[in-house]
Amino acid sequence: MGHGTNRVEDMTSPNTATARETIVEIHSVCLPPKKTTFQKLKKRFADVFFPDDPLERFRNQTWRNKVILGLQSLFPIFTWGSQYDLKLFRSDVISGLTIASLAIPQGISYAKLANLPPIVGLYSSFVPPLIYSVLGSSKHLAVGPVSIASLVMGSMLSESVSPTQDPVLYLKLAFTSTFFAGLFQASLGLLRLGFLIDFLSKPTLVGFTAGAAVIVSLQQLKGLLGIVHFTGKMQFIPVMSSVFNHRSEWSWETIVMGVGFLIILLTTRHISMRKPKLFWISAASPLASVVISTLLVFLIRNKTHAISFIGHLPKGLNPPSSNMLYFSGTHLALAIKTGIITGVLSLTEGIAVGRTFASLKNYQVNGNKEMMAIGFMNMVGSCTSCYVTTGSFSRSAVNYNAGAKTAASNIVLASTVLVTLLFLMPLFYYTPNLILAAIILTAVIGLIDYQAAYKLYKVDKFDFFTCMCAFFGVLLVSVPLGLAIAVVVSVIKILLHVTRPNTLEFGNIQGTQIYQNLKRYREASRIHGFLILAVESPIYFANSTYLQERILRWTREEETRIKENNGSTLKCIVLDMTAVSSIDTSGIEALFELRRRLEKQSLQLVLVNAVGSVMEKLHKSKIIESLGLSGLYLTVGEAVADLSSTWKAHGQPRI
Amino acid sequence: MGHGTNRVEDMTSPNTATARETIVEIHSVCLPPKKTTFQKLKKRFADVFFPDDPLERFRNQTWRNKVILGLQSLFPIFTWGSQYDLKLFRSDVISGLTIASLAIPQGISYAKLANLPPIVGLYSSFVPPLIYSVLGSSKHLAVGPVSIASLVMGSMLSESVSPTQDPVLYLKLAFTSTFFAGLFQASLGLLRLGFLIDFLSKPTLVGFTAGAAVIVSLQQLKGLLGIVHFTGKMQFIPVMSSVFNHRSEWSWETIVMGVGFLIILLTTRHISMRKPKLFWISAASPLASVVISTLLVFLIRNKTHAISFIGHLPKGLNPPSSNMLYFSGTHLALAIKTGIITGVLSLTEGIAVGRTFASLKNYQVNGNKEMMAIGFMNMVGSCTSCYVTTGSFSRSAVNYNAGAKTAASNIVLASTVLVTLLFLMPLFYYTPNLILAAIILTAVIGLIDYQAAYKLYKVDKFDFFTCMCAFFGVLLVSVPLGLAIAVVVSVIKILLHVTRPNTLEFGNIQGTQIYQNLKRYREASRIHGFLILAVESPIYFANSTYLQERILRWTREEETRIKENNGSTLKCIVLDMTAVSSIDTSGIEALFELRRRLEKQSLQLVLVNAVGSVMEKLHKSKIIESLGLSGLYLTVGEAVADLSSTWKAHGQPRI
To answer: Which InterPro entries match (chains A, B) (predicted)?
Structure first.
């Protein structure tokens, strides 16, 4: 790169005299408007907890309107209920019945996944949808038990308490965990800490869900192969060894029937995925399979006993279970831990599903309010024999495709489950366990999103790494630990970015006032006497030492380069602070130290375009005064122009 | 703020025709030069682990030079040893003797602080300085036991093992902790993970040190009041209640003598602080006090037994202690934990002290190499009856003021301790414990840096909060927990900044191409049809949802504002990405979603000046193609000029 002797001239050459004067006109860097600490705290507090400005709608309203708006915001049913008509009702009935046909077999299946009695799955498909329809702000969320939360609850609780040997304690723990899940969810919403679930990033969730889906699928081998003595563990290796060590228990009748229905279910799912209009095929097939397989087992009931079936299920509505909550004793910690983890996971799923469909129909789902709705739903659920529920992705998709218009479809769903609980329970007597396994398998296979993982691999290797950590963590270590590993890896990524920020050398793009990265813009070139560096991160205790050393190294390298090219001496380090969005006291001290050390080498340090909060701290710490008048500029261009002209005026060698 | 109808004209008005053409000339945004994943990983790896480019000096050297440079870099003694002369030696002898006079009484005192036999403090002032003089790269560091690490070791170990009831096990654990401290320190250096100690930010250290100093001071009440039965706890409340519950044990002779010497020591310290030239007064006063008080106790030994004294100390050099290291058993976890915490703390102190004096004399101290030196010193120390040592701030300051020129002053120090160990031990028989308490008190009172805390309060409230967390955490909870709380608070600050980043509305400063924060620069004004927003943080999973919602809220608010002012319609959202130093897949998805939702409102989304790595990911994820040609600009000015002219060309209402 050739370096002309009058770079500064070059720089301004395309704009003639008038333009150059404009350049040397220097704009002072303003301090932000003065605010008291209280005002700043208030703003910061509002930013963190009320980014959506929830009171905006209430401003300039009469008292009556305020009350109505308040009621509507607490109970969204008031918002849509007043405009509800027959047409909306027709849509909701159709979609409600469709999701019910899916929810009943899935409810039974997922309860088994959580090692709970199948009837609890139906109970959980009755009360929670009713509550959600009153409190929830999503129009398409179909509420009920979901696979991931069921799996996690099952795996965490059964590590300490055996669901077969101590079923009552197990049930108690399940309801207690549900209560704590709800409490945790509602608190997150109430304290407006909903942003905490953002820390479960998409890559984490893709990996975690896929890992959990694999685990769930492997667990289904028990039902699909007819194995009686199966391991209670969840990890890949013990499950696989359990499958092959019990080969004598494999039952060919179960395998034939199970695989047959599995193929049917997968095929109907495939058809519906290809043609969303045919959503009803995959929506109806689980119930149809249940009916057909139950009939089949009923018909051959005297010929073979190889196929295990559900057996007796109690008739009647949800019994109250508040007396089963468990607030003391050795397992309380386990219940709380399980509650928090299933709570976070089900919340994440519910919010994500709600947001997805809201975005498709262009309406807003308020995260914090949804959390309160889901949390309250689970707290009530825990007192009415329900376990953790949330919005399920598969059923919500069916709901959406079936044309649901309001949360009333959840009422239709609940009513259908009500009828089932009251009258149809005996029909499930001969329902074979293998069909439940097939239904679960079909549902969870769709959760293995290898395309998303491939996209992560292509776009962002680190995100892919996080995803793999979650996947293998869940598969090989344990479900909660896998999740924890992935969250820690995501946080480390943020910290690493802050600890080792980029510093870039800028140059001027000839004929403009634009200064850009020298490595990226070939047309950019260095300016004699200046080293222009941009720091791409806040300056914090975690990186202040690094940045100080790195900038000194840039200076050394630049001086070596100049010496090799026989250029003129370096005089000034310009630090572009545009991307330094924040600074703390360690950062300020590093700047002080940097200035001191550069001064010893007769180099000037100039700061450019410090943002408001940084500027304020620089001012308070008196560093600005110590930099002097020519230590602070609004743009790199102004700094370069002004300093060059000063040097010229002082009769230094022309640059 | 009045809004003219031809804002765009206004904007360019000071520069006449030629200038405007320059503006409408659009510079394309470049992708960074292509690199393979391996190259990127390599660069990232080098940035994280080798920011100082340690092999730089070895390039273009002959083999012989490379070997010499290698030896010098492993053993800094080769660097200064070859140029060592009599003049340097004279300076080092003076400073070495001065710090020895301080190190001997402090060594004995600090060992008592760690609940160890006083002689271990002298052992620890002999071997470690010798090793450091060979390996260390600081010229002024005076090595030996320090108060904070002694306190932490004492408090952590005595929680599980009583030093009076089981002294051998206690001693074993102390040596084992020292070994692990050294191992941990050396590993940090070897694995180049030194940056981890940066997470102990200055505010954390100010608060932690002050809290620890208060605890240490309170502990000295035992010696100063002559209490025999003192609590083993460290927290403020139990210590104070112990002091007042044992009022019957207070001994007036001890109190009078102790307070007398304390006043002398504090006065001499004060004089030396006022006049650094008189450093020798405070350096000599501890030894003088020890001598005088020992004499006093010797003289009154038959008259009173109220004053307790050290008693018999073994003569002779450090006995080997490698057989006392303890690598199995119930207390191993405690030893490792204590080792890591004391290791981190002593490392932080050593590195900080080294850097401070290096910066005063303008030489470099290599962090990772220092860690290896300190770590190796402690590992050897643990095998020669030493406990954790590092560079002490107070003694290094004396060393510096006494004119130390090289690490040879540590050799002089060690030789003096050698003579003491071999011949002078019986002289300490009558040294009263109260004088040790007074020496410790004088040393630690200086650690309470209330001025630094006040400065934190003035400049950065959050840093002050971190500092207070550390202070009260140490004082009221426990030493390691207080430290952990403060580190977590510091990390949360970083995460909070990332989770809730600033978004700013920009406007044009009339007559320039500068776009700046509207709230801060009064002369900046909005441009019709545009909403220009700057995002001040990387876009990550932790903030992508927030940013998306926040930008949509900005849009809503801007539209309301326009409606109120009867302005022309909003057409375009310009997102200035200059400060977005990084993006991940969640961030990209948020941008996609944002664009989709803005499009539904017939608003265009334009990205400006995406930095290299962001640009690359935008490119890979195809978002750039979906934004179209006019979706990406290098500067806000170019975006505004180009889009306005396009709109005009398409015959839309003139803006």
So the answer is: S04_transporter_CS, SLC26A/SulP_dom, SLC26A/SulP_fam, STAS_dom, STAS_dom_sf
What is the count of residue pairs from A and B with beta carbons less than 8 Å apart? 243
For B453, nearest residue in chain A (alpha carbons): A585
Are A207 and A453 spatial neighbours (Cβ–Cβ below 8 Å)?
A: yes
Residue A397 contacts by C-beta under 8 Å, 6 or more apart in sequence?
A279
Based on the fold, state whether residues A252 and A137 are members of the same structural domain: yes
Residue with more model confidence, A51 or B524: B524
Does residue A516 sit in helix, strand or coil? strand
β-pairing, B572-576 vs B530-535, is parallel
Question: In CATH, what number is assigned to the domain containing residue A520?
Answer: 3.30.750.24
CA separation, residue A377 to residues A136, A173, A418, B509, B617 (Å): 10, 18, 17, 53, 41
Residues A344 and A405 in one domain: yes
Structural tokens at position B633:
């600009």
Yes or no, beta carbons of B51 and A520 under 8 Å apart: no
CB contact under 8 A, B198 and A499: yes
Predicted complex: ipTM over 0.85: no
Residues of A in contact with B496 (CB under 8 A): 48
Nearest to B88 by CA among B78, B96, B76, B100: B96
CB half-sphere exposure, B189, CA atoms < 13 A: 26
Across the interface, of B27, B462, B536, the residue whose CB is closest to A514 is B27
Distances in Å between the Cα of A541 and the Cα atoms of A538, A591, B200, B356, B484 are 10, 12, 8, 16, 16
Transcribe B297-331 into DSSP letters: HHHTTTT---S-B------SSPPP-GGG---SSTT
pLDDT band per the 50, 70, 90 thresholds, residue B652: low
DSSP secondary structure string for all residues of B232-290 = S--SHHHHHHHHHHTGGG--HHHHHHHHHHHHHHHHHHHHHHH-GGGHHHHHHHHHHHH
Assigned domain for A322 exists: yes
Find the closest chain B residue to A41 by CA distance: B461
Q: Provide the number of structural domains found in chain A.
A: 2
Query: What gap in Å lies between CA A639 and CA B58, rounded to an integer?
Result: 37
Amino acid at B131: I
pLDDT in tens, A380-396: 999 999 999 999 888 88
Backbone angles phi, psi at B201, to 5 degrees: -75, 165
Do A583 and A440 fall within a single domain? no
**Which of A489, A512, A599 should we substitute to test contact with B (largest number of B Cβ atoms within 10 Å)?**
A512
| Burial status of residue A417 (CB atoms within 10 A of its CB: 0-12, 13-18, 19 or more) | buried
Closest residue in A to B619 (Cα) is: A459
- Three-state DSSP class for A96? helix
Range(s) of the domain holding residue A633: 7-36+501-649
SS3 percent helix, strand, coil of chain A, rounded to 5, is: 65, 5, 30
pLDDT tens-digit map of B507-536: 988 878 888 888 888 888 888 889 999 998
Rounded CA separation A589/A574 (Å) = 18
| Residue range B572-583: mean pLDDT, rounded | 89
Apex B320 CA angle, B316 and B326, nearest 5? 140
Please give the C-alpha separations between residue B151 and each of A194, A450, A643, B219, B224, in angstroms, as whole numbers. 41, 54, 53, 10, 17
- For B515, phi then psi, to 5°, come to -115, 130
* Structural contact between residues A177 and A411, judged by C-beta atoms closer than 8 angstroms: no
Tokens 């002072």 sit at which residue?
A: A28
What pLDDT, on a 0 to 100 scale, did the predictor assign at position B111? Answer: 92
Q: Where is the domain boundary, A450, A479, A494?
A: A494
pTM of structure = 0.78
From the CA of B512, how many Å to the nearest CA of chain A?
8
CA angle A321, A324, A325 (to 5 degrees): 105
